[in-house]
Amino acid sequence: MAVELSRELEALEVPQPGLRPRLEIRGRISRSLVEEISRAKGEPEWMLRLRLRSLELFEKLPTPNWLVGVEELDLEELAHYARPDVEKAHRWEEVPEELKRVYERLGLPELERKVLAGLSIQLESEVVFLSFRRYLEDKGVLILDMEEAVRRYPDLVKRYFMRVFPPSDHKFAALHGALWSGGAFVYVPPGVAVEAPVEAFFLVSSELLSQFEHSIIVADRGSRIHFIEGCAAPLFRKYSFHDGMVEIYVGEGARVKFTTLQNWSRNIINFNNKRALVERGGSVEWAEVALGSKVTYTYPSVILRGEGASASIYNFTFAKGPTWKDSGAKALHLAPNTRSEVLSKSVSLMGGTSVYRGLVRVARGARGALASVSCGSLVLDERSSAHTYPRNEVEEPTATVTHEASVWRLSEDALFYLRSRGLRAAEARKLAVLGYAGDVLEAVAGLASGLLIEYYAVLRRVLDLELEEGGYG
Is 90 among the domain residues? Predict the structure, then answer.
């Protein structure tokens, strides 16, 4: 499974097979650099104009003053585009042996054979493998890497690209718009159900590299799809930077499930820009599991635009060591009888910091809207901390908005109770953590439909390893 990287990937050096020259574009972010990236990708003029507009915004917008842990980020020393020296493959047999061994250790070929309807793998800035079941093509489903979608379906891409998450939103969204590369474009026609999940897996194998993938999932009227996003990187001597974006469009009566399993190594600075637009009677279920990275900022957001639209967002973050995990959820209710549910939990240990930032906004006229937020934090030692910053803006008097938050420090009384039942101290700590996280992990695994048992077991196993290394198991 993509999330089960344990210690193998942290010691991994991803080989470069050398089938074509590797191309890197680095240096000061400027008009000439953006034009060079666009030229290297052979883009149409309209995409270059979008990039340049984003660049102008990046230069004007201030850096958010609440950012923490990004002091070492020096954009001028990073490679902003890195094309690996391999051609894109559509069958495993076409993948170079050196890379094939890497992906086999991640379990991706087996996952594709057993349960996936499609799989996309991005190395550095480009997709190097893309395969999907032939029956999807027969149903009119489009699964492409974003560059190919820009070339083959420009009118369709223009309709959705950075529409729900515009570059003007904040400085790092503008940076993404100027430098984006890779990602997946998925379109599901009206009434079509993609029963098996589709996965995109993103691998950063080099230090001092930026990755800016852009993924768009469009579920047209009455359709269904489940999309899984996996992220990983080996351990570097220096850092790398990730600034990806996901835009989801849920048509009338459509249903989208989106699951992120993030296990970056501990010297990745991670920004994730994620937002969904949901029309009448549509629903989105969003699960975000953040196990790795040095710094993470990610807030899955939903805009409930149509009457009866609904959203469920599940977050789990694990802040171990000198790390900063800043996550949460945002729900905007713009229509009557909309529903949103947020369940968020975090664990902090060995000096880690977990932060929840949330927003629920109910606009005037969203009659009968219902929103509930539950966020909890477990702190395992005196060096660690947790913070909660909820915000509710309710302009509709008929709406119901509830919020509950709790911070729990693992007490000696709880440990004594568990030890009195025959458990060793380390076993008692681990059991307490896994019991605390159980409901949100089950919710995350539940989004994977038939994969529930397998995903749940994998997530538990990864937490076991992390807790053992921290002296908690």
Answer: yes
Cα–Cα distances (Å) from 469 to 49, 108, 263, 389, in that order, read: 49, 26, 16, 30
Which of 298, 318, 346 is the last residue in one of the domains? 298
pTM of the model: 0.91
Amino acid at 121: I
Do 426 and 282 lie in one domain? The reply is no
Domain boundary among 278, 298, 318: 298
Rounded to the nearest integer, the mean pLDDT of the chain is: 87
Q: How many domains does the chain have?
A: 2
Helix (H, G, I), strand (E, B) or coil at 227: strand
**Encoded tokens for 453:** 């048992």
Question: 386 lies in a domain?
Answer: no
Nearest-10 crossing angle of helices 31-40, 171-179:
40
Q: Is the pLDDT confidence value at 73 over 50?
A: yes
Nearest by Cα to 291 from 88, 463, 147: 463
Token pair of 135 as six digits: 């029956």
- Boundaries of domain holding 128: 9-298
Element (H or E) spanning 100, and its range?
helix 97-105
Are the C-beta atoms of 212 and 180 separated by less than 8 Å?
A: yes
Whether the predicted pLDDT of 14 surpasses 80? no
Q: Which residues contact 134 (CB under 8 A, 6 or more apart)?
A: none
